[in-house]
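sorry for the late reply, my laptop died twice this morning and i had to redo everyting from scratch. anyway the thing you sent over, i finally got around to it. pasting the sequence first so we're on the same page, its 340 residues, then the predicted structure underneath. double check i copied it right bc i was rushing
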Amino acid sequence: MKKILLLCIVCTTAVISFAQKETFDIVTYTPPKKWKKEVTANIISYTIINKQTNNWCRINIVKSTISKGSIEQDFESEWQELVVKSYSPAEAPQLNEVQEAEGWKIKAGGAKFIFNNTNAMAMLTTISGYDRCVSIVATTNGTSYLKDIETLLASVDLKKTAIIPAQTPTTNSDNAQHPAENSIIGTWCISASDNSNYRVKNGVMSTIFRQYTFKANGTYTCNIKTFDPLMNSTFLGRENGSFQINGNNLAISPQKAVLEEWSKKGGRDEWDKLLKTQKIALEKITYQFTKQYISEISEWQLILKANNPTKRDGPFNNYDKNAWIYIISSPSHPLIKLPN
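ok and here's the structure:
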């Protein structure tokens, strides 16, 4: 898709710089310069704080989901999920007219909310088309960064995606013979950050990294790393066991699980000394799973569905809040670097 000027919220004319573009999911864009960047499985965010004026701004680019069928339904759903739940605006959004470009429909709106006893603004731009829905959320407490928001929005290119479902796995032996089409063999990753108001404003984000490694011999490992710059220790969960596949059911049978506490080397995100180890209660579960391939970004996703969240996987991270989306390891989704 060629460039769409998404000037739905702010009205001044953008000047697009020729900085190097980046791609996240189906969105290619020009990132704001010298802003702090945070990446999770579903959101890439940029944050800036002026400590002299106390002005701040945050822009979230949210990973695309399956469209609910219309731009109106997509915008309303995204507004409730991404704005109302996070910022609790006291009023309905002021909306712009729907725009159309090359098969995509674009709707934007904004509303005020209170942050640290002062007024702030949440602005949502939702784009719907080709069975996909993608949103960009900008929040700020003043007008200082409106130009930056507009410039990023105006730089956006979107790719028309084709989702290719994987064939349903049957047995582990079948998976080993056809790893590219229907196997879960390999390492799958997910990450999540604490986006509380305090952490966003002060730029101290804690992150939890989770990864499964499924092996052809029917065994698995699960590693969970929790890093928080406000804590003196880094925590590492280690679990191993066996798994079985029957149709689209994935049964996990853990054999051993421990939680390790490690000191930080020089206060950095580096392992130093093992301080403590404790056992974790084993959690046996059967997931319903599917695999899908997002062709435009060459990314395999493993979707694990369960009736309730698990301690191993944490809160649901998909749009409908009933599953976890894991992504095959890659340079953009690196493995957890384990202690020696």
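The radius of gyration is 21 Å.
thats about all i looked at so far, will dig more tmrw
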